[in-house]
Amino acid sequence: MPPPDRRAFLLQTGKLLVLTASAAAAWDYVMAGEPEKTPDYDAAAHWWAMVIDVERCIGCGLCVRACKTENHVSLEPDCFRTWVERYEIDPDDPDHPHVTSPNGGYDGFPPVTNEGVKTFFVPKLCNQCADSPCVQVCPVGATFQTPDGVVLVDKDYCLGCRYCVQACPYGCRYIDPETHTADKCTLCYHRITRGLKPACVEICPTGARSLGDLKDPNDPIHEFLRTHKVHVLKPQMATHPKTFYNGLDGAVR
Amino acid sequence: MNAVDGFIYPNELELQWSVLIVLYPFITGLVAGAFILASLERVFNVQAVKPTYRLALLTALAFMLVAPLPLQLHLGHPERSFEMYLTPHTTSAMAMFGFVYLWYLLAVLVVEIWLEYRREIVLAWQGSSGLTRLGYATLALGSKNISPEALRIDDRAARLVTIVGIPSAFLLHGYVGFIFGSVKANPWWSTPMMPIVFLFSAIVSGIALVMLMYLAMTWFRRVPVDMTCLDTIARYLLYAFLIDLSLEVLDLLHRIYEADESFKTLDFMVHTRLFVSQIVLQIIAGTLVPIGLLAIGRHAADARLRRVVYITAGLLTLIGIFAMRWNVVIGGQLFSKSFLGYTTYKMAFATREGLGVAIVLLILPFVILAGLVRLLPPWPAPGRP
């Protein structure tokens, strides 16, 4: 066996080092967990919001799948942190929209069969309400709002009384069949506290979803909100949602 | 898979609150109603209902002991329920239940029953031996003083407890109504009428239950029924029912006339999925028929006929109030908060929240009551001053 040549050795070692370093960095992101593990993150310096651009959603369902994978959400047909609805509205009968969300839009949607109807997709997720009824009703405070405006559930404290599920006007909560506690969208808190985007935002191929920091004056969300006519879901509930919809049809509930 | 009509949010497929949560307001309602009937004699001096006073208290206690069980069984983590006492979340309408419950159980019901029975407990203590003696000695808290002066103080204290107890009973059940009535996300529940409707339906159900228990007790003991007592209870049942009906009609008229965004959805639900339980059982069989029976039947000259009328009206009342709880709790979860569709409730039998458990929980208070009646006989003790 010939002695190893120095150039090849250095090349091999260099590759190994780069690979190990990137694997370690990737692993760090994979294992990104509770905010206390990110000591540099100052929760009080942020106020998170989401912008959904209805016109851009193509109903591919990638966000639903990414969310379930990233957050280990049960594949049961009634466990969704995010889902996509398709509205089909007959202009002659706008009060009775035909709405579908097969398995939450997990596998996308079949082609529209009705001709001459207005059709669009509406991605749904927790609205991270500033005045959350779910936080209000939790009898032990297991559901709480973080200083950066995200509503979270402490699974080690939740009784599983389901009052919060009843109190959410948007149907955004469910009971995790594994833990028997309430579960909901966390805006991928383990990711956003590491400077990453939520999984659904990251994967959306059309940029229909974007995360914004209302406390960051340089965040493009300010420009977007200033230049677009946005709406929130069920404003009459006075929950002050922080999920803003651009191009939302009045028929959407 | 549950049958779905129209569109519901995906997470709405399964109902969150089962038949056990139907039992919860039903049972606490019976407690509150029974206590309020008992207080008629103690506070308002309605002597005619005296034969039911003790029975009403024991009935209230038996049902009160069972009241938290359906909640406990329903929780995803029953072992954490004590956290509600340790770290109650002050903005939650539910967080106070434990305190309201304990207050009513320990500061009102148990104290009043103890004061009422203290004389008999002491006599039983003195007249028994062995373990029974020890048991009664413990119940008497070691005091043998049953002098006329002591009994007079007992009586005054019990009256005071009842005076505190009436608002407490109102609080207990009005509060249960508030737990539902304050959920703004749910238009079927969200109304300030809910606590007061719950309260009066509770009074109705409690009076009906005590009336039936009194008849059962006289039948078991083979003693004649005090018809003055029975007629008086039936009269109060009718009055309470008329108030209850007026409140519910007011709520209904308000909903129909206002016809807000949820109205068509709820109206359709009442005429389809809730038709049997709401229109047939609650309104017709459980409200209008018993009101008619009580209003007309109480004028019958024949005492036997009156008893039959009262028994029929009482049973129908209990079915109607149970249906009312069902329609509130289950009905409030059958429609989507999108107002675009409906789901169904499939009740299992042999599961933790199934029909089997519900039946056991409904029988259990009667078993407890039988034990209480043995321990503390509710009929007036001979020679009581």
Would you identify the regions of chain A where 5 or more consecutive residues have pLDDT less than 50? Answer: none
How widely separated are the two ends of chain A? Answer: 73 Å
One letter per element, helices H and strands E, the order of chain A comes to HEHEEEHEEHEEHHEHEE
Q: Tell me the CATH architecture of the largest domain in chain A.
A: 2-Layer Sandwich
Give the strand tally of chain A: 11
The share of residues in extended strands of chain B comes to under 5%
Described by the principal axes of the CA atoms, the overall outline of chain A is: globular
Number of domains of chain A: 3
Number of helices of chain B: 14
Report the largest inter-chain contact.
A-B, 45 and 41 residues
Count of DSSP strands of chain B: 2
Q: Termini separation of chain B (Å)?
A: 64 Å
Q: Kindly provide the name of the CATH class of the largest domain in chain A.
A: Alpha Beta
For the largest sheet of chain B, list the strands in their spatial order.
Answer: 1-2
Describe the structure.
In chain A, a hairpin with an 8-residue loop joins strand 2 and strand 3. Chain A is of the alpha+beta class and 253 residues long. Chain A has helices spanning 6-30, 62-70, 133-137, 163-167, 189-192, 199-203, 220-227, and strands spanning 48-53, 82-89, 98-100, 118-125, 143-145, 151-153, 174-175, 182-183, 209-213, 230-231, 243-246. The radius of gyration of chain A is 21 Å and the shape is globular. Helices cover 70% and strands 1% of the residues of chain B. Chain B contains 14 helices and 2 strands. Chain B has helices at 19-42, 53-66, 68-74, 83-86, 97-126, 130-139, 148-181, 193-221, 227-258, 263-271, 275-297, 303-329, 331-334, 355-375, and strands spanning 5-6, 341-342. Chain B is globular and about 70 Å long. Chain B starts with a strand and ends in a 10-residue tail after the last helix. The mean pLDDT of chain B is 94. The chains are: A alpha+beta (253), B mainly alpha (385). The A-B interface holds A 77-80, 83, 85, 97-101, 103-104, 124, 133, 135-141, 157-163, 165-175, 179-181, 237, 253 and B 1, 6-14, 16-17, 71, 74-77, 80-81, 83-84, 87-89, 91-95, 97, 179, 183-186, 333, 336-340.
